[in-house]
Amino acid sequence: KSIDGLVGALSSMLDAAAFPSKDIQALTSFVQSRSETDSDEDQAPAAPVYTSSSGGIVEVIEDMKDKAESELAELRKAEKTNKHNFEMLEQSLTDKIKAENE
User: Fold this and answer.
1) Handedness of CA 20, 22, 25, 31 (dihedral sign)
2) Residue by residue, what is the 3-state secondary structure of the chain?
3) CB 51 within 8 A of CB 38
4) Is the pLDDT of residue 29 over 90?
5) With 0-12 CB in 10 A as exposed, 13-18 as middle and 19+ as buried, what is 27?
6) Has this prediction a pTM greater than 0.70?
7) Average pLDDT estimate for 67-94
8) Of all residues in the chain, what percent carry a pLDDT higher than 90?
């Protein structure tokens, strides 16, 4: 039950943070896969072996970071282009007004 609550809470947080649905599905799948592994471990005692579980989540988060940086770079480039286009239009209109007033 606690895993279902965790998955629900994670889904709510990711929805509120406006993450892309692909990233939400990846994180939810990761949590669910960890919960299935944990459930299996609860049923049968295993030898005490340390295994890092952070690798999967770190990769997902790094992938999300790379995507966000890429999107930010694209948006900045588009903003710069739009600003340049606006400034050119503004200059053109200003010159046209000056020419008509003379």
Assistant:
1) negative
2) CHHHHHHHHHHHHHHHCCCCHHHHHHHHHHHHHHHHHHHHHHHCCCCCCCCCCHHHHHHHHHHHHHHHHHHHHHHHHHHHHHHHHHHHHHHHHHHHHHHHHC
3) no
4) no
5) buried
6) no
7) 96
8) 36
